[in-house]
């Protein structure tokens, strides 16, 4: 008995030792060859890990003389630069600054290389802006109108009607506007301008791909900070970044670094977290800054997988007045000078041309140039804007002119700086007596007697503002201008504002004319008493030293229409009390208002009606005045709720239309309809769309609501048994559907006669047809059972 126990123990011990030996052998497979075997070479398929980043790449690895050899192509695909790979088989153990380790347990080859060898990763903000939405347009017409009438006891009554007519489509936009005026009573006809006065007529179009716009007709020339604009009748071509809101035209700061292992990079701007990005081993650069202006501080925090954290703080300065490197901005206009604008409808003078060009040379330097020309005028100038690190932006320019043999020059310079707490700015212009430009040239040739336009000889502007936190905000400005005749104007302005309790605010301002020695001032207290209503109390002092106390009560117009009012009373130290009141009402089709203002001796009563008429899709629509773009939603079904950017805009009319005015052009907005109240037999293929509309245009947005034309159909075979589950139902022009339990299948887009083919999972098939009375199934109708005689499966006997 004892002997047998000892034999059992020995056997157990022997088995355990044997198992341990096998376990040790298995755990080391496949082992590298022994270093004591010189010249031995073995090849393994191992996972390749670079700086702890496993991309799932399995490559052949040759172990020879205690060194690891990898193919050149495998190293290139892993990100190792081609310049460091000198042969078809690279000994990675012998490469400088490279460490190779064999992960025996997980069958991987671990390589540690300098982070600078790995591909650079760029973290930018292009994806954050989302996809680009090109502007859309449909063919249509628009008529804006604004009727205004006024009556005073001294001058009688007068009527004016502003109007704008607009045509738009794929060829661009045509617009013409003006005003018709008529004296109704009081002053004799002709005492003021009467009849129709045209303002502007033009055709325009845009190329979004190249960010260009064209305009033919009446136009205003573009200008720089140190040049002037004039009105021309002619042609204009210009860079137009407003058609591409997805583009950022000014340089944003970028940050770069290197990650030795997979890490997370967090960006904090002015104390707020802006983004978080996962980076792989290697160098990286980040340009996904928020769209900010002015000075700030960015903190970049890098955290690796082990929790080690490195924080770097960097100041920056962003200015939207600069251009990105390589980006250009230009405008060129040519035509005839528009004289006496707002006085005469057609008064064009001498031929003239004007052009401006800006180019971003570097992140910190933007070059500028400008030129103007006419029959007896030539002007040219150049300048630039320079960012001084994080200290702000300076600008300077020099321009020279010659008009009728007289030469002149203009010097300008300035400086701007802003941050989250304060900003300062200054701008100076000095002109010689002989300096001229198109504005002066056009005035001297306009033929309008009584006034003559002159350029100032010197101007200086200084401004500053600072946030005092709980003590409010303080602002100051100084203007110093010397006119062409030598008169000098010096004005000081100080202002202070503060929220005092709730949403109430206090505002104080004072202005002083340094040359005259007098000053004006205002103290105003605004107290809200409802969501849209507020009351204000103010004390004013004018240049003559008289004071007035004013009380105002007002209510703003709701966005979806309704009532608004404004009433005020002022106790004046000279003259009678001043009174003013107005009442406005607006719905989706029109806006009206009426009121009065004046003192006891002179009172004006007025009334106004404004809106627009739109012709599109063969129908007329009335709406509030459309200043830019609009959308006509078409559903082919009445009383459907339409939302714009999740805001309810109204219900479709009896024809299934709703006009959405007041759309910002090129803004990718979301439009959706509410189909919860639709009958069960009506359906739509889409309930939400996102797109942008071109400038001064309209778009017909179609949400087709149609009869469902679908029904459940019961299908049986020739034996009266339901067709098998998963039998395919194939119809021409329709998606394949499948039979469910009890032979029931759902069919859509049904016609009066519907032919179909059934194919069972075991290969049998049949053909049949469904006849729908009237071509439209009854709501929630079930048809059948229909008999579809199945044929034998191919390869089997019947």
TrEMBL record:
One Pfam short name: PapC_C
Ranges of residues in domain PapC-like C-terminal: 715-773
InterPro entries linked: Fimb_usher, FimD_plug_dom, PapC-like_C
Keyword line: Signal
Signal peptide (from-to): 1-23
Keyword Kinase appears in the UniProt entry: no
Top-rank lineage group of the source organism: Bacteria
Name assigned to this protein: Fimbria/pilus outer membrane usher protein
Species, as recorded: Erwinia aeris
């Amino acid at each position: 008995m004892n002997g047998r126990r000892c034999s059992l123990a020995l056997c157990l011990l022997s088995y355990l030792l044997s198992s341990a030996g096998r376990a040790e052998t298995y755990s080391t497979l496949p082992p590298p060859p022994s270093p004591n075997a010189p010249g031995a070479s073995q090849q393994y398929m191992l996972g390749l890990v670079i700086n702890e980043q496993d991309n799932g790449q399995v490559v052949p690895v040759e172990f020879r003389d205690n060194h690891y050899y990898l193919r050149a192509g495998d190293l290139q695909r892993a990100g190792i630069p081609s310049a460091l790979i000198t042969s078809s088989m690279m000994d990675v153990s012998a490469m400088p600054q490279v460490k190779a380790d064999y992960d025996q347990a997980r069958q991987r080859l671990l390589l540690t290389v300098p982070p600078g060898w790995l591909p650079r990763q760029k973290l930018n903000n292009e994806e954050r802006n989302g996809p680009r939405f090109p502007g859309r347009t449909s063919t249509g017409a628009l008529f804006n109108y604004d009727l205004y009438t006024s009556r005073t006891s001294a001058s009688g009554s007068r009527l004016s009607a502003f109007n704008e007519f607009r045509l738009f489509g794929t060829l661009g936009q045509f617009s013409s506007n003006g005003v018709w005026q008529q004296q109704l009573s009081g002053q004799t006809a002709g005492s003021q301008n009467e009849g129709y006065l045209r303002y502007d007529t033009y055709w325009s179009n845009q190329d979004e791909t190249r960010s260009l716009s064209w305009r033919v007709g009446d136009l205003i020339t573009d200008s720089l900070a140190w040049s002037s604009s004039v009105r021309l009748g002619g042609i204009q071509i210009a860079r137009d970044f407003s058609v591409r809101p997805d583009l950022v035209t000014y340089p944003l700061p970028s940050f770069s670094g290197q990650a030795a292992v997979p890490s997370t990079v967090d960006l904090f701007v002015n104390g707020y977290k802006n983004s978080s990005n996962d980076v792989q081993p290697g160098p990286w650069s980040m340009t996904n800054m928020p769209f900010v202006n002015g000075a700030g501080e960015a903190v970049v925090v890098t955290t690796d997988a082990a929790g080690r954290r490195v924080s770097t703080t960097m100041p920056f300065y962003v200015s939207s007045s600069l251009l990105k490197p390589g980006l250009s901005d230009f405008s060129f206009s040519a035509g005839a000078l528009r004289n006496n604008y707002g006085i005469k409808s057609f008064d064009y003078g001498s031929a003239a041309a004007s052009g401006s060009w800006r180019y971003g040379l570097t992140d910190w330097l933007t070059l500028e140039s400008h030129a103007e020309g006419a029959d007896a005028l030539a002007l040219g100038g150049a300048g630039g804007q320079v960012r001084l690190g994080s200290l702000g932006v300076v600008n300077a320019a020099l321009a020279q002119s010659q008009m009728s043999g007289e030469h002149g020059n203009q010097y300008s310079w300035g400086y701007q700086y802003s941050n989250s707490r304060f900003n300062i700015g200054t701008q100076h212009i000095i002109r010689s007596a002989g300096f001229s430009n198109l504005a002066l040239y056009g005035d001297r040739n306009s033929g309008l007697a009584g006034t003559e336009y002159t350029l100032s000889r010197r101007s200086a502007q200084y401004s500053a503002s600072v946030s005092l936190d709980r003590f409010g905000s303080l602002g100051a400005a100084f203007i110093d201008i010397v006119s062409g005749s030598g008169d000098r104007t010096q004005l000081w302005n100080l202002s202070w504002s503060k929220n005092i309790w709730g949403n109430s605010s206090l505002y104080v301002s004072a202005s002083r004319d340094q040359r005259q020695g007098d000053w004006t001032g205002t103290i105003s207290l605004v107290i809200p008493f409802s969501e849209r209503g507020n009351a204000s109390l103010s004390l004013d002092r004018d240049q003559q030293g008289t004071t007035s106390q004013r009380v105002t009560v007002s209510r703003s117009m709701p966005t979806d229409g309704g009532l608004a009012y404004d009433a005020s009373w002022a106790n004046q130290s000279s003259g009678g009390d001043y009174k003013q009141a107005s009442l406005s009402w607006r719905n989706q089709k029109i806006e009206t208002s009426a009121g009065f203002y004046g003192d006891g001796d002179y009172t004006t009563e007025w009334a106004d009606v404004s809106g627009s008429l739109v012709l599109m899709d063969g129908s007329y629509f009335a709406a509030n005045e459309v200043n830019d773009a609009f959308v006509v939603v078409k559903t082919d079904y009445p009383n459907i709720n339409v939302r714009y950017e999740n805001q309810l805009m109204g219900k479709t009319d009896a024809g299934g239309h709703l006009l959405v005015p007041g759309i910002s052009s090129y803004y990718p907005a979301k439009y959706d309809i509410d189909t919860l109240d639709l009958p069960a037999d009506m359906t739509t293929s889409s309930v939400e769309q996102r797109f942008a509309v071109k400038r001064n245009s309209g778009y017909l947005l179609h949400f087709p609501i149609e009869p469902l034309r679908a029904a459940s159909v019961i299908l049986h075979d020739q034996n009266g048994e339901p067709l098998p589950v998963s039998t395919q139902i194939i119809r021409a022009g329709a998606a394949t559907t499948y039979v469910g339990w009890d032979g029931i299948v759902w069919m859509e887009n049904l016609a009066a006669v519907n032919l179909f083919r059934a194919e069972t999972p075991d290969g049998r098939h049949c053909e049949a047809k469904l006849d729908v009375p009237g071509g439209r199934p009854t709501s929630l109708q079930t048809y059948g059972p229909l008999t579809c005689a199945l044929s034998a499966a191919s390869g089997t006997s019947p």
